[in-house]
């Protein structure tokens, strides 16, 4: 059974990745918007923002990476919704494959395509002056957090695709996620925000994730932020996965 699942998932990932490579404009689109935000905030608004650092690119990059991932998972919902409407799921279910591999194919493809976008954005940030003295272990920790964040949002994207009635409905859920970093510590310290906004910013998942990644890049103590970030990511990942599986079973019942 395990062999069947892994073989089926591998086939589904290859199929989904072919769609991505044949339509590279999706990755380009996902990458361009965060880079545009980075250019805008660094070269236009950066001088007026008091972030307590001389290198605003370093301060900004973690939030930009989260925006890119939040934008990228909308294409997972789009591709999954199109598969559902095309009737290809019925064909898959008539084959001797693990049914859950259909979802995992889309989820793992999201992980790969978002990883490509993240690497491109980091390369652009390096050109803009991003520097990190972090060693291998902190970088691996950053990668792990970004993987968890991507998986968490991707399973939420799966729920949206399985529940939507139209293509617009399938991707609309990502819009609030894209702008959530703006109400966090991603662009400015939360201490500079007015009362109610500050309370929200300090108690939503993006702030703890951004603070953790920023501390890892700068080789500073991560404090409790890393545990809060992991709790948010793992907790929402498990909830998203369970709800997605339930929605999938109802859809194919």
From TrEMBL:
This is Transport permease protein. It is found in: Cell membrane; Membrane. It comes from the Bacteria. Belongs to the ABC-2 integral membrane protein family. Its main location: membrane. InterPro entries: ABC2_TM (IPR013525), ABC2_TM_bact-type (IPR047817), ABC_2_transport (IPR000412), Nod_factor_ABC_transporter (IPR051784). It is a multi-pass membrane protein. It holds the Pfam family ABC2_membrane. Residues 25-251 form the ABC transmembrane type-2 domain. Keywords: Antibiotic resistance, Cell membrane, Membrane, Transmembrane, Transmembrane helix, Transport. The chain crosses the membrane at residues 24-44, 56-81, 102-130, 136-162, 169-188, 226-248.
């Amino acid at each position: 059974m395990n062999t069947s699942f892994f073989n089926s998932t591998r086939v589904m990932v290859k199929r989904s990745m072919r769609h991505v490579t044949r339509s590279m404009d999706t990755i380009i689109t996902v990458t361009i918007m965060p880079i545009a935000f980075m250019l805008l905030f660094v070269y236009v608004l950066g001088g007026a923002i008091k972030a307590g650092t001389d290198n605003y690119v370093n301060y900004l990059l973690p939030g930009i990476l989260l925006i890119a991932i939040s934008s990228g998972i909308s294409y997972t919902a789009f591709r999954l919704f199109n598969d559902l409407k095309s009737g290809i799921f019925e064909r898959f279910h008539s084959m001797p494959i693990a049914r859950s591999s259909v979802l995992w194919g889309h989820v793992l493809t999201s992980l790969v395509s978002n990883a490509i976008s993240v690497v491109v954005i980091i390369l652009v940030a390096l050109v803009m002056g991003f520097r990190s003295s972090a060693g291998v272990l902190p970088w691996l920790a950053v990668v792990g957090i970004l993987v968890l964040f991507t998986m968490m949002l991707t399973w939420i994207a799966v729920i949206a695709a399985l529940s939507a009635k139209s293509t617009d409905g399938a991707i609309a859920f990502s819009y609030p996620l894209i702008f959530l970093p703006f109400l966090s510590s991603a662009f400015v310290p939360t201490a500079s925000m007015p009362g109610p906004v500050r309370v929200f910013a300090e108690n939503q998942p993006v702030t703890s994730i951004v603070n953790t990644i920023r501390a890892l890049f700068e080789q500073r103590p991560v404090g409790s932020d890393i545990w809060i970030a992991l709790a948010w990511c793992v907790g929402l990942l498990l909830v998203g996965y369970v709800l997605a599986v339930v929605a999938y079973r109802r859809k194919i019942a």
